[in-house]
Amino acid sequence: MPDLLRLITPLLPPATRRRLWHARLPDSPLKAFLAVPPPQPRSDWRQARYLALDLETTGSNPARDDILSFGWVCLEGETIHLATAQHRLVRPRRALTAASVTVHRITDDRAAQGEPLEAVLRDLLAALAGRVLIAHYAQTETGFVDAACRACYGGPCITPVIDTLALARRSAPAHAPGSLRLGALRARHHLPRYPLHHALSDALAAAELFLAQAESLSQDGALCLGRLLVR
Question: CA of 122: how far to CAs of 30, 142, 154, in Å?
Answer without folding.
Answer: 8, 15, 14
